[in-house]
Amino acid sequence: MGYVLPALGILIGLAGMALPLIGQNTHWLKPIFEGNSFAEARLAIEMDWHWWQGLPGLALVLATLASWWFWQKKQAWRSAQTVFTGGAIFVAFTLVFVIGNIEKYFQYSTIEFYESKAGENCSIQPVGFKSYAHLFYSQMCPSKGEATMGSDSILVHTPAGKKIYFVAKLSDLKHLSGLSGCKELFRKDGLIYYEKVFDAGK
């Protein structure tokens, strides 16, 4: 086993233990993302972090140390059982305790917007970034030519009376130059949302 694998397990476990502390003090990360309005807005999202959310990381650290100790005692089978059990506990409880919070930093409010448009006669188009989340959460199927994004501008061919929503990052507003005639709806968590209704003849 040597020292590489135990060191890796301990580092991953310590990172898991540190997540609640970092989540409670996101201002520590602001110097890293200074000037990135999108990242700064995401870090400003209010989130509940608790000390017990670091327990999966502690379990991995303890399991790694125990596994290394069994390995040194020439008990390879017990060593393998311990490290795999610890790894399974770490993965399972990290998914339960932590992943939900991390997901909120990345896309929670965006998914809420997409879900609110399910069933509406509309299209949704991300601007300046590639994503398929809008299709999944709004339960829409893309139709040919309905909304395509070129290299320099957005070309839209949408039936009359149908709305199209554009979602763009605040840190990447240069892509909004092609959105003439659109109305800004709101800004939230580093994203800006636009709406356009295509009337007959337009």
List the helices and strands and how they pair.
Blueprint: H1 4-24, H2 37-43, H3 55-72, H4 76-97, H5 99-116, E1 122-127, H6 133-137, E2 147-149, E3 154-156, E4 162-169, E5 183-188, E6 191-198
Parallel strand pairs: 1-4
Antiparallel strand pairs: 2-3, 4-6, 5-6
Helix pairs in contact: 1-3, 3-4
Indicate how many domains the architecture comprises.
2
Counted by DSSP, the helix tally is 6
State the secondary-structure class. alpha+beta
Distance separating the two termini: 68 Å
SSE series: HHHHHEHEEEEE
Can you list the strand order of the major beta sheet? 1-4-6-5
- The helicity comes to 40-55%
Tell me the β content. Answer: 15-25%
Extract low-pLDDT stretches.
Answer: 145-156
Largest sheet: 4 strands, mixed
Mean pLDDT: 83
Based on CA inertia axes, which overall geometry fits?
elongated
What's the total number of strands? 6
**Rg calc:** 23 Å
Polypeptide structure, described:
Strand 5 and strand 6 (191-198) form a beta hairpin. This protein has two domains: 4-97, no CATH class; 107-198, no CATH class. The model is unreliable at 145-156 (pLDDT under 50). The radius of gyration is 23 Å and the shape is elongated. 45% of the residues lie in helices and 17% in strands. With 202 residues, it is an alpha+beta fold.
Tell me briefly what this model is.
With 202 residues, this protein is of the alpha+beta class.
What distinguishing features does this structure have?
202 residues, alpha+beta, 4-stranded mixed β-sheet, single chain, 2 domains, 6 strands
